[in-house]
Amino acid sequence: MQRVLFHSTIFGPIHSRRLGTSLGINLLPDDGKICSFDCLYCEAGYNAQGHGTTGVPSREDVARLLGEKLAAMKASGEHLDVITFSGNGEPTLHPDFEGVIDDTIALRNRYFPEVKISVLTNSTRLGSESVHRALSKVDNNILKLDSAIADTVQALDRPAPGYDLSAVIDRIASFGRQGIVQTMICRGEHDGKPLDNSTEAEIKALIEAYLRIMPGEIMLYTIDRPTPEVNLRRVTREELEAIAARITAATGIPVQVSA
Q1: Alpha-carbon gap, residue 88 to 74, rounded angstroms
Q2: By C-alpha distance, which of 156, 137, 138 is closest to 146?
């Protein structure tokens, strides 16, 4: 079984296709996964691997480890573009997510004031006032929307029970242009059933959702690493660019393509 990628709270810096030189923060266990989605394409593997044994890092430990890393990078003259919350699951599930964000902003301002702070979230926790408030403080509030068709979300992202796609779209829209919507485009099959969110119906539904949300930017990307569902396939850059051009023509929203 494919397992978690990140075995520490602070990792990298690594090169991100979308964000540049990125120092990662993993707010989940370093030997397990905690997520409100169970995506077929997740590079950290399926949720079935379990939560592990180490638990989530405390707010204090995150601040200490991040401070030590930033101080060392500053002293050695290393380059940094962004501090990114991602890791082994959904970062906004951390019980003190807003406090961690506040600490990260303070440390960024101390050591690398020009660096952006990014959060990659699956958008399932936007109903929490604290999470919503925290996300409104960061530079790159990157909100997942892989499909605007409920059956496709259920098949591709496999959200926890109670997921309401229409409500999620409304909550993403509440950020307005301060939000960045991220959409994974892929195709293949799972359990013998075809799956493709690049079809005409899918793109039309996404455009309608983007018009409802009107984010500052849209990020389209495709599979880059091995996925737990081995029958998923990436789409080509040419296909992504064609979809991006269509979205921008219909909405006026700039689209960044990563393939």
Answers
A1: 27
A2: 156
